[in-house]
Structures are given as C-alpha cells and as structure tokens.
Amino acid sequence: MGAVVSCFKSVVNAITSCFMAVVNAIVAVVKAIVNGIVSLFSVIASCLTCGKAGGRRRATTSAV
C-alpha cells in the first residue's frame, strides 16, 4: 500500500511542478508586456517634455 501512496505523491508532485512552471511562464510574459508598456509611456513622456521629465539621469564623467 505504501508503494501506491508513494506513486500517487510522485504524480501529484509532478503535476504541481508542471502547473507552477506554466504559471511562472505566464507571469513572465505579462511582466514583459507591462515593462514594454511602461517603457513606451516613458519614451512618450520624455518626448513631450523634451527630456526634462523622468527619474533616469545619465552619469556624467569629466574628461580630465
């Protein structure tokens, strides 16, 4: 009887791992889409404000 329970646990564990992999893939795709939309709006805002808006600043180095 222990072998049946062990086999059942293994099957459930495999199905759970597969399901989690699918969920992680879906989340990664949604995250990439959201990051692309945010980047697009950042470019539009930068264009409309002539680059004066936004938190990203370029690091300047001296030529000395």
Radius of gyration: 24 Å
Spell out the helices and strands N to C. Answer: H
As a percent range, the share of strand residues is under 5%
**Cα distance spanning the termini:** 79 Å
Secondary-structure-based class equals: mainly alpha
Q: Low-confidence stretches at least 5 residues in length (pLDDT < 50)?
A: none
Chain-averaged pLDDT: 86
Total beta strand runs:
0
Q: How many H/I helices? A: 1
Largest sheet: none
Helix content, binned percent: over 70%
The rough form would be described as elongated
Can you describe what's shown?
The protein has 64 residues and is mostly helical. 73% of the residues lie in helices and 0% in strands. It has one helix and no strands. The longest helix has 47 residues, at 2-48.
Supply database-style keywords.
membrane, elongated, 1 helix, single chain, 64 residues, transmembrane
